[in-house]
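chain below, 425 aa
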Amino acid sequence: MRAVDLIQKKRDGKELTTEEISWLISNYAQGHVPDYQMSALAMAIYFQGMSVNEIRDLTMSMVKTGEEIDLSSLVGIKTDKHSTGGVGDKVTLILAPLVASFDVPVAKMSGRGLGHTGGTLDKLESIKGYQIDRSQEEFIQQVKDIGVSVIGQSDQLVKADKLLYALRDVTATVDIIPLIASSVMSKKIAAGADSILLDVTVGDGAFMKNEADAEVLSRTMVDLGKEVGRKTVAVMTNMSQPLGRAVGNRLEVLEALDIMKGQGREDVTHFICELAQIMLELAGREESLETVREHLVNGQALKKFEEMVAYQGGDLEDLYRPSQAAFITEVRAEQEGYITALPALEFGLIAMRLGAGRAVKTDQLDYEAGLVFEKKVGDYVNVGDLVLTIYSNRVVEETVLQDCQKNITIGSEQKIPKEILKVIT
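prediction:
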């Protein structure tokens, strides 16, 4: 076979065979197919799409380019969760220990943030001493001992995806449903869990900007999970405004702690309980929302989170330390009415400018920086009410304040956003 012939075949809208896809991915992972040819293939896929069979073959070919984690020694139905990314998304910090508090094993590998989207690993590393790099043996032993572990993805896991994702990021081919689906599901399949909850974010701060595209992606990933015998559910969730109150690594950890102490906003608390109920159902546990909420607010989830932090080397005293940002700046409402919009993308980019996110992968993070919202969409404000607080280790530029103000939309009509838009089973 020749890569150029397969690129031409896909360019002309024809379907690649199982053998052709396997050959391409295997040889790309081994360095025999160069980046410039894989870039051409990605662009051909961008314009021509892929069939269900092609996406399945691509996913499984990528799985075979690295090690697969064997979780069979863990008792019970192992669960995993993935989010397609957003702003202020601290869900894993709460959801993983919450589900584990029901004696359901949660073995999760997470990623870092890039651009306006935050990464779970970055949030955990804002805790002094927390170790994200664990061997497969240590990872499995921790789940055996305390029921939960959240670590970084092994370099040996799905090698082709790591190479292809870096390539897509610089060739404007990130937002292609076949490549998103195969990237997500190859990692989830290789990670070894029996059941997978997919949080597919939709809206201004997500890769999927509209519900139609998000539903296609959701159904594609659910079908891929079903193909390989993994119980999979996709939940389409609203990312039109930042999730919860905090955007920024240390600040999101602190908000997660508040939620696990029963002191979080009601909307995000209820949302996480709904996700936990679905995740538990995937593991064969039928629990009421009331029971799930009780575990969240009575300290059981928090205890499990503290166990995880301590087991992975984290300092429990540092865990509860407030942000040490040098500059704290308030942004107040300039008119009276209901907040009708807080665009997630814009506030994600503002947080990134403060140092809370990366413009490129090599950027150093400021774990203390970010935003905390006192008011969200649907809340009423009077002139002078505090809407958000900026945390920064550099003097806050006037342009940042102006950008915050212009992105706070206030109107006369109350809009209550819905967190869960659709569940795809």
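The longest helix spans residues 211-227. The radius of gyration is 22 Å.
thats it, cya
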